[in-house]
Design a protein that fits this description.
Blueprint (H helix, E strand, L loop, with lengths): L10 E8 L3 H13 L5 E4 L15 E2 L6 H8 L1 H24 L7 E2 L2 E4 L10 H9 L6 E4 L1 H7 L8 E4 L3 E2 L2 H14 L3 E3 L4 E4 L5 E3 L3 E9 L16 E10 L3 H7 L6 E4 L5 E5 L5 E5 L12 H4 L2 H14 L8 E11 L6 E5 L2 E5 L8 H13 L24 H21 L6 H7 L1 H4 L7
Parallel strand pairs: 1-2, 1-12, 2-9, 5-14, 12-19
Antiparallel strand pairs: 3-8, 4-8, 5-7, 6-7, 10-11, 11-12, 13-16, 13-17, 14-15, 15-16, 18-19
Helix pairs in contact: 1-6, 1-10, 2-3, 3-10, 11-12
The structure holds flavin-adenine dinucleotide.
């Protein structure tokens, strides 16, 4: 597939979107749904889908995992509204694939959050209670170890919680499918075009020319931390994935044939799912922290993190000892201080970031929100509690990187101690608890 040509001269558009990941692509799609004749221009520094949107784990989740935080920050009615809107997003992606005949391997099946150490057992109680208190007890239910193992018989699984609505997708098929449909609908896309500056009047600058627009949408994920006005709004972590060769006989043996996405209950999570061609995608959120908005190589691919991810895969599924890993990769995670995505406007610039490892489903909702903000239309989507939430900021660099790295090390030590059945030390426990004490959340 050939990239679209870079921008070659000054131009104008009704709306300019910066970033060709799911958020930018869904925003473009929603804009054309609302106003089919709109002149939409999307600028992407590499190729659409090159970022995490083209290479994530493919969990297409709701925002129910964030229900407790939403309740604390916005109250019950607002929390429920966000969770329900995020359910529509998951269904919306499935419907979009069907209507547009894009085969993104969308498969609806529940998500399991499991315990793999005694210390994790019951850690889901707060979220189960939150769902029940919000009148949605069916959305998240506790399940016994035996029930978990009928869905997937890993020897590590000690019980868990089941999120009713979830799906999995093939990430790159979805991103590239969206790009193709947008081009068909007449959106203008320039790839290999980096935006270097935003103006509050909605115009943006690149090395090749300037775009004057009625509104601009900033949809650049963790790179937002590199733009003035957004530097303290997010921190950058990283996540890595290994992909097995097809192992359908192993999936049959462990009974993992229902398409469930599975995540464990530690802070630096392990996450795993099956694919249509019988492989296991296995990820770990334990990679290094990034500095500001800069993309360091080891956020993209860290051989040491890949090695540890592969070791964990075999601990979860001993049958995979000696089986081939055909692909491995990583990427940056845009961590919001509250763990929830943030949308809003500064003048005529409209932004979205902070998915904190749960952006596949919520970016569809983000596209609905940003399209409305860009057109200055207000409705129940722009009234959701993830739009212009009260501000919470990270400390500036170098404290953010140093503090984040210290906390990450403490979390790794805590998880290692608990995996070995030991109590973590007092200092480790204290440092690992700092984000919670400061009211900040790390991935999951
Ligand atoms: C390894 C990994 C696994 C993950 N697994 C899951 C999962 O299973 N489920 C889930 O929900 N989420 C997952 N995520 C997170 C998810 O991928 C993201 O939340 C989601 O893709 C965010 O979409 P986006 O459009 O905001 O960002 P991106 O996909 O990063 O898109 C932003 C785009 O902006 C471009 N860009 C950046 N700066 C500029 C600039 N100055 N000018 C022009 N363009 C620019 C980038 O090249 C990029 O293409 C995972 C992430 C990683 C790294």
């Amino acid at each position: 597939m050939a990239p679209e040509p870079p921008l070659s001269e000054d131009t104008s558009a009704d709306v300019v979107i910066v970033g060709g990941g799911y958020l930018g692509l869904w925003t473009a799609w929603q804009l054309l749904q609302l106003e089919p004749e709109l002149d939409v221009l999307l600028l992407e520094t590499a190729m659409c889908g090159h970022g995490p949107s083209g290479r994530n784990g493919g969990f297409c989740e709701t925002l129910w995992p964030g229900a407790q935080i939403l309740r604390e920050r916005a109250g019950d009615a607002a929390a429920l509204a966000v969770c329900r809107a995020s359910e529509s997003a998951v269904r919306g992606i499935g419907a979009w694939c069907e209507t547009n005949e894009v085969d993104a391997w969308f498969r609806e099946a529940p998500m399991l959050r499991v315990a793999t150490t005694e210390s994790q057992v019951g850690s889901w109680e707060g979220i189960v209670v939150a769902a029940a208190d919000l009148g949605a007890a069916d959305e998240v239910v506790a399940v016994s170890a035996a029930e978990v193992r009928t869905r997937c018989a890993s020897p590590l699984f000690l019980g868990g919680a089941l999120y009713r609505l979830n799906a999995t997708v093939h990430p790159a098929r979805l991103a590239l499918g969206l790009r193709a449909k947008l081009l068909e609908r007449g959106a203008r896309i320039h790839e290999r075009t980096e935006v270097t500056r935003f103006e509050r009047d909605g115009s943006v600058e690149t090395r090749f020319g300037r775009v004057r627009a009625g509104s601009a949408v900033l949809a650049v994920n963790s790179a937002a931390a590199g733009f003035r006005g957004y530097r303290l709004s997010l921190a950058v972590a990283s996540s890595h994935i290994v992909l097995t060769e097809p192992v359908p006989e192993v999936l049959d043996e462990i009974g993992w044939t229902g398409g469930e996405a599975i995540v464990d209950s530690r802070t630096l999570v392990h996450y795993m799912r099956t694919t249509r061609d019988g492989r296991i995608v296995f990820g770990w959120g334990g990679g290094a922290m990034g500095i500001g908005g800069r993309l360091a190589d080891r956020l993209e691919l860290d051989p040491k993190v890949i090695e540890r991810t592969q070791e964990a895969l075999v601990r979860f599924f001993p049958q995979l000892e000696g089986r081939q890993i055909t692909h491995a990769w990583g990427g940056p995670i845009d961590v919001s201080p509250t763990h929830l995505p943030i949308f809003g406007s500064r003048g005529r610039i409209h932004h979205g970031f902070g998915f904190t490892g749960n952006g596949v489903g919520p970016s569809y909702l983000g596209g609905e929100i940003l399209a409305r903000l860009a057109l200055d239309r207000r409705d129940e989507r722009t009234g959701l509690a993830i739009v212009e939430p009260s501000r919470k900021l990270f400390p500036p660099e170098p404290f953010r990187y140093a503090g984040g790295s210290l906390i990450r090390r403490a979390l790794l030590a805590k998880d290692a101690a608990e995996d070995a059945g030991r109590e973590p030390g007092v200092a480790t426990r204290f440092v690992a608890s700092l984000p919670r004490r400061l009211g900040l959340r790390l991935p999951r």
